Amino acid sequence: MTSNASSSSPHDRQRLPEHLRAEALMEEDAALGLDTDGDWDGDQLDRSDRASLRRVAGLSTELEDVTEVEYRQLRLERVVLVGVWTSGTVDDAEQSLAELAALAETAGALVLDGVIQRRDKPDPATYIGSGKAQELRDIVVETGADTVVCDGELSPGQLIHLEDVVKVKVVDRTALILDIFAQHAKSREGKAQVSLAQMQYMLPRLRGWGQSLSRQMGGGGSGSSGGGMATRGPGETKIETDRRRIREKMAKMRREIAEMKTSRDLKRQERKRHKVPSVAIAGYTNAGKSSLLNRLTGAGVLVENALFATLDPTVRRAETPSGRVYTLADTVGFVRHLPHHLVEAFRSTMEEVGEADLILHVVDGSHPVPEEQLAAVREVFRDVGAHDVPEIVVVNKADAADPLVLQRLLREEKHAIAVSARSGLGIDKLLALIDDTLPRPDVEVEALVPYTHGALVSRVHASGEVLSEEHTGEGTLLRVRVHEELAAELAPFTLAARH
Ligand SMILES: Nc1nc2c(ncn2[C@@H]2O[C@H](COP(=O)(O)OP(=O)(O)OP(=O)(O)O)[C@@H](O)[C@H]2O)c(=O)[nH]1
Ligand SMILES: [Mg+2]
């Protein structure tokens, strides 16, 4: 925990509504004198320095037990963000950092500051370069941050070197996203997928995270504060045992995930056999996918102004205005530079998208450049073989969007529609569009089904399209459009059929 004995702990503050949180932050900043005018004397530096050293001591990240890998929480509290800006405009770089800030907040952190460093490429040793690392150390001291979050994936070596300079914990974007996923996964499968990805990420970094050990191995006789921890002699062997046990655990987890996938595949095949068309809602994180699912089906799915609120695929039954039944699946949100381990771990979940009959690609219309989100998501579509599924671009949050951005999107995207899951604007049109785009059952049948065959009539309702229905003395007179299999079952009662 931090050593700032302020009245409200950072944890209390995180649960406040956003606007209040900002106020609370300002209050505390004022109380700590952080809203400084640049006045800085040696005494202050000394004091903060001591304070921050205490923090480091409290942040032992050494693995006590292999199970910690699974349950480890980053426990981010007060963070400073740092990005390396290698290409693109300054706007791009700032947006990327703003997204990192949103990710950090989602993980429960308080963002104190963010800096961008212009470089041709990240520094191989310290990511931002040793001079900048020193400046970053100053910012860390000044703000009282306990963690630095880097906007990229750092090598184990970069993490260690940067930690050595800034003297607080350094994590990268990948670790942050993994942490959010770990907090949000609910189902057994989701949890297993996340811990597999976490272990994969941790494996080469075990030494880096066990800070004292890394110093000992690399730094020689620096005699730094970590030396007293009980990892000296047999440290190397312990790490090796840890690695082996993690590998074994990973293998076991892979098998479990494969089994869970099998049972999900069976369910999906079952739906396919019944020819129920499937629609997948996919898109960038926080675009409003779950809100749209709720709006379209009345399902009570968790909606949160947080990234990656949804991690487990939710499948709901829905009906088109013409009464055709289809399944509607909510999916994991995507984000730029989704950590490779996660794409791998969630491949099976994302493959559902590839097998859908239609994708509702939801994009946040109130974002300044929704095109970037569209492109990032399509990259993942390509990765999981979902590029040839018909797609409707659903530009959501039309209520809050810039009309010019909306116009631009609707012009650029051929199969697009603007809606607001919140206000309901455009939802009727979207429902009609889904109806038009979903594959049609292909046989039109007229049949008189006796009342003793009520179940057959229900199935026609569920998977076919009922054009007319009349209850006569002899049974239900149906004019319907159904797929071949059902047409065969209706055959005994058929009056007329045409293709
Ligand atoms: N203004 C506005 N806000 C919306 C609309 N639809 C959703 N939101 C808000 O956007 C935020 C994210 O909504 P979700 O439905 O959780 O988004 P999601 O795409 O499922 O997000 P993840 O599951 O986290 O990837 C919530 O705060 C919603 O209230 C809309 O039409 N207009
Ligand atoms: Mg969601």
From TrEMBL:
Q: Does the keyword tRNA processing apply?
A: no
Gene3D superfamilies (alphabetical)? 6.10.250.2860, GTPase HflX, N-terminal domain, P-loop containing nucleotide triphosphate hydrolases
Q: For the region Disordered, what residue ranges are annotated?
A: 214-237
Q: Kindly list the places in or outside the cell where this protein is found, as annotated in its UniProt entry.
A: Cytoplasm
Q: Which UniProt keywords apply?
A: Coiled coil, Cytoplasm, GTP-binding, Magnesium, Metal-binding, Nucleotide-binding
Look up the coiled coil feature and give its residue ranges. 243-270
Q: Which Pfam families match?
A: GTP-bdg_M, GTP-bdg_N, MMR_HSR1
What is the documented function of this protein? GTPase that associates with the 50S ribosomal subunit and may have a role during protein synthesis or ribosome biogenesis.
Oligomer status and interactors: Monomer. Associates with the 50S ribosomal subunit.
Q: Which PANTHER family match?
A: GTP-BINDING PROTEIN 6-RELATED (PTHR10229:SF0), GTP-BINDING PROTEIN HFLX (PTHR10229)
| Family of the protein in this entry | Belongs to the TRAFAC class OBG-HflX-like GTPase superfamily. HflX GTPase family.
Q: What is this protein called?
A: GTPase HflX
Q: What is the lineage of its organism?
A: Bacteria, Bacillati, Actinomycetota, Actinomycetes, Kitasatosporales
Gene for this chain: hflX
